[in-house]
């Protein structure tokens, strides 16, 4: 049934137009149940719906508004629910104090279809205002939802409750030692005991809280009924007193809720956080699942039927091959035969020892810390906070449960159940059950176990997983595959090679993994039985239930698949897919692209598989059986209709046969892969990807312009939303861009920051890093350079770990990219490739070296070989022996400040006698060119990044900071010069760095923090600046002191302001119990005072910020704020900091910071209202 809900407020005076418009609205509604509620300001029957005055005996009659309302009811056929249910009862929803009368003007009106589902209607007490709240209860059989318990996180912030839980858990484990009952059963029972105790505590708290409320509501209802039937002044007086008491109680509760709500906005508004992200994100069109089709193609719309449809679908999906029994020997033999035919890696003993060691409590603690767990709880309702708060009591026993699994023990079935949350796939039919992505919300203890296992396995993935696969493998990036495939398409295009780029769409890849195949693969890869047993325990006895609002979930078993939502699942999926990729890669008839003897056939990011095939028809004919054989034993299935093929230089006949003979959909000019469009024409990459992205970003910026986001909040918006999107393209596509290409987008960002108004801060300061005195607005061109330089850094990694590095090394042969790039441009031999990716990286590296002046030329890292300055080295093969012992670069020539000797090189490895001659040539070159100074020079910060031993975290951010901090990048900071002139006190650079740091930490509230930046950057308009702009006719101070209103005058030098600051200074000395200098640097710009400790300095900054905020609020006024106004802002900031500390569990830090203020404000002689 379709329900139509309408809410109206009728005008207090008669209005024919209003009632006619509502009549037309109701009449135009589609068929269904109509429920209209609201304040009608009219009654249907005055005799029973309106009381007379206390002293009057005249029966109320229909007024003009009443008549219009009665006409409306007749025209639309709506029914007054309450009157139908209670035809002879007199009760009212509104009390008019001026007239001393009651009336029933707040109504629910329904049509006949809705009336059949009505259970009851109520008129409650008049508590909040002069209206009572009314309620309508409907019988809705569709919404018979089961109740699911969830831990109330606020209980974990109550020290008394936490103490009870600690005591109870200790006592429980003491009373239930391991014995006949399995450890997992004891653990499961522990959760039941703790859940019961938590429900008991929550129920007690709720009853205590509601007792006074319920008592007052009952008393109020009794008095109202008495007053309605027999009104008297005494009854009215008592009724008003009771209503006032109830209102105060409700207001206290609402005030607390509003306070906590305000705290959240205080901390998170305009910050790089969820609130800002949600405000920028367009509202999703998907709200709930209203109807789906069953397997019989029948459309159902009740929640229980929807739940049943999904349950049937996923039950079939997760049990799709019941004949693949783990004990089926013939099937296991088929798996073994397939795996034995492949060249798969095998773990060494050093790796196995780490996997087969017992789980330590430290590992469990590490997993708990790494997992969030405050949202998306599993079926047991316990959050991550529960495990974090009770960590000392729970971790020892939980560790024992996990280790028991390694010895063949099992986990309790309740631990392995999961709720399936449904996420709609974009652009898919919402009525199709397969159009949703199932995310498993598993219990937190199961998630801890999975995380421990994932932490052990993750470091070994680089050994077990071929570099062709880059998804979920540490230190492998998505751009490894996108750059590789862009290179391959360029290579094929430059040679006009008939070839095919094939994107394979795997159908429900994670969900279809067969467990017998998975565990056979784990054993074949050399994972020890100890570890495999733990994985097997996590996967044995799994079950799930689909959660649909308004329905009772139906549990079903799971016999295949890896759960999306489990920390271990992506890793297991990679290992289960590796045999397929190996089979394709090693098949002699599936021909990839060969470059200098190396074949590039398959690249994958998890289940996103892309094949680059030459001799396409023959390769496809052999690919089909490989996919079919693998699918038969592993459950893998290709969706041929969604897989896509892009032919390159193929004949029309061959192209047609791909679609007709193999079933792949053709994409003649472009192919979507990992979020980008790969184009058959390499020159079209820019227009198909970058241009489209820029148009979308400009559109978004334009639509965000009117959103209520603060100035710094807009900078954060760019960092959080725009920058990741544009960085994705910068990383994944080897495009050569100039500043001009990005100028239009950068201008759109500027307009968004200033809301298309006048700039208040110079652009060079806006884009300067915060640590260098700016605001850190992303400079897109510098981020582009940083993103491209990360790939130059990747050139220095082993070619065996990154396939695209091996490919580009082959393109550049006989040169090596990690050496060639360090040569000065004049010393480089002619490059033997025109690959756009390589040329782009070289140009960006040269730009960093010349324009940004981040490296010397020549550099200590300049190579000796293939260097035109050293002609003998152009034949690098002659120096292979010396290169093999590490003599590659200028800096390798010197050791401990002296030229290295041949004997020292011989200690590193075996060298032929001919190598001594080559060594003499190199030494002569070094001496003749006087390379000692260059070779022994310390490496620059950028050179250290390139030569780092391992992968660096936050590499783009590091490079961006270096680029944005390069000499001459931003010019002088004029606001610093102006402050130094105003205060007649030049500061050294390190003191300005202290000021910038303190400004960025002045408050946890971004809105308050903005004031610190506005003061620092001289944002505020003064009489002098307005006079210069021609806005005013005088440049004198607004406070009537007779002096010119310069910036420093308005903030500090004005006599009126000086008296204000003197008062503040005196109170600050009382707060800190010591003499404080009257230092404008400290009060205005938060420069640290040497007499204050770190917590005291933090408090000083908070207090000074409140003073400046009060002063800024009266900027244009002649009267300055009183001390009471300042203290009100301080008290509010203190309260918000305290509530935030409670949420973050940092009360000790809060106490250290605010203790002096609390001591001051609570002192008997403290006067917060001092003027």
Describe this structure in words.
The chain has 1171 residues and is an alpha+beta fold. The chain has 5 domains: 3-139, Deoxyribonuclease I, Chain A (4-Layer Sandwich), CATH 3.60.10.10; 153-268, no CATH class; 357-679, no CATH class; 682-778, no CATH class; 977-1161, no CATH class. 51% of the residues lie in helices and 9% in strands. The protein has 48 helices and 25 strands. It is globular, with a radius of gyration of 37 Å. The mean pLDDT is 90.
Short description:
Helix content is 51%, strand content 9%. With 1171 residues, the protein is of the alpha+beta class.
Could you give the topology of this structure?
Elements: E1 3-9, H1 16-27, E2 33-39, H2 46-49, H3 64-76, E3 79-80, H4 81-85, E4 94-96, E5 101-103, E6 106-110, H5 112-115, E7 118-123, E8 134-138, H6 159-175, H7 183-229, H8 233-268, H9 274-280, E9 292-293, E10 299-300, H10 303-317, H11 329-340, H12 349-355, H13 361-370, H14 384-389, H15 391-406, H16 413-416, E11 417-424, E12 436-442, H17 444-457, H18 461-464, H19 479-494, E13 499-504, H20 515-524, H21 529-539, E14 543-546, E15 555-557, H22 569-586, E16 593-595, E17 598-600, E18 602-605, E19 608-614, H23 616-634, E20 644-648, H24 652-662, E21 665-666, E22 670-673, E23 676-679, H25 685-704, H26 711-732, H27 739-753, H28 763-766, H29 780-795, H30 803-812, H31 817-820, H32 836-850, H33 880-884, E24 894-895, E25 898-899, H34 902-906, H35 913-928, H36 932-935, H37 941-946, H38 955-964, H39 974-983, H40 989-1000, H41 1006-1016, H42 1023-1028, H43 1047-1053, H44 1055-1072, H45 1080-1085, H46 1094-1113, H47 1123-1144, H48 1147-1161
Parallel strand pairs: 1-2, 11-14, 20-21
Antiparallel strand pairs: 2-6, 3-6, 4-5, 7-8, 9-10, 11-12, 13-19, 13-20, 14-15, 16-17, 18-19, 22-23, 24-25
Helix pairs in contact: 1-3, 6-7, 7-8, 8-47, 11-20, 13-17, 15-21, 17-21, 19-30, 20-21, 20-22, 22-23, 23-24, 25-26, 25-27, 26-29, 29-32, 29-38, 41-46, 43-44, 46-47, 46-48, 47-48
